[in-house]
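Lab notebook, bench 4. The sequencing result for the construct came back, and we need a structural model before the next group meeting so we can plan mutations. Quick request posted to the team channel:

Model the 3D structure of this chain.
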Amino acid sequence: MNRPSTSPTEAADMTGAPWYSVSNASEVASPALLLYPDRIEENLRHMRTLVGGNAARLRPHVKTHKLAPVIALKRAQGITKFKCSTIAECEMVAGAGGEDVLLAYPLTGPNIRRFLELQRAVPGTRFRAVADDPATVHELSAAATAQHAGIALLIDLNVGMNRTGIPAGDEALALIAEIRRLPGLRWEGLHAYDGHLAIADVTARARQWASALGPVWRLRDRLQDAGHPAPLIVGGGTPTLPFFAGLPEVECGAGTPVLWDFGQPLHNPDLDFLHAAVLLTRVVSRPLPGRLCLDLGHKAVASEMQPPRVRIFGLEDATFVGHSEEHLVIETPRAAEFPVGHIFYALPRHVCPTVALQSEVAVVRDGRVTESWPVTARARRITV
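Done. Here's the predicted structure in token form:
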């Protein structure tokens, strides 16, 4: 498959229709999120190319899509490692045959028991978790030993995100020593997420990345100098994928490239992925001259970003004047051209939480919606 431009005005397909349009749109209830498996597959191939063709270097975050069929597409590309934020995501991956799962979110409270239950329920999948707190490490040890189980842990390092993790220095070394001392636990590596490094200037972003990750490499060297084996290192999100991709000892955790959106290229003009998730929406009212109301409210598209939260194909210059639970109100001098019921297609600004708002997605093959996929892991609990 050729890699066309990923701008909002991407070329039409061979029939002359825009690549994103569906011939049976009249059968699709709106608002709907459309997914394009051929484009997902191309994005996965491109991710693999970035890491030198070695799919073992990829551990893409599944929070972007939360879909078992996308796990199947990844596995078909040789990707066997996955990163998750919730136990439900871990269960979804394991149920889809995922071989190696990292829960990159602190385990506390009942989630410790749930994690152990999931390990026991799916013995064919290798699970790991992260830790950054000594007291929690003791809780994990007690829970694991009580169930005659084990938990493999990566130390969660704070490299400037200031959200979770501990500094990559003496504190991390002390926690590793404690994990190695406690029964039921196994220290296996380091996790470093740098999602705060999201500026468009590639040179400046590279400098920031080198500064932020320097302590991680020094910690790795100290561990090896002390006689520890080379640790597993899981690094980065999408903005720093181009930098981690060149480090053969690191597994890359970027997830957004699988679906892409219009927000990510604002931070990553250096990456070239295909849009593979599009919202289908209809005009539901024309309340004033020059104004349209679309059925694309907060409950259909992620609203944590500042407007515009979508980029509408063919109305890229529209002004966004109101956004509420079920309504998106826009202004355009072309409003009279579009009757109530007119279908628009739009790119979400942030695709990950947009997917999480959907109970199902519509799957587009050869220009038609052919099936739907349930967004299984949008739930906080599946079975465990």
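The CA atoms of residues 134 and 175 lie 6 Å apart.
Will bring this to the meeting.
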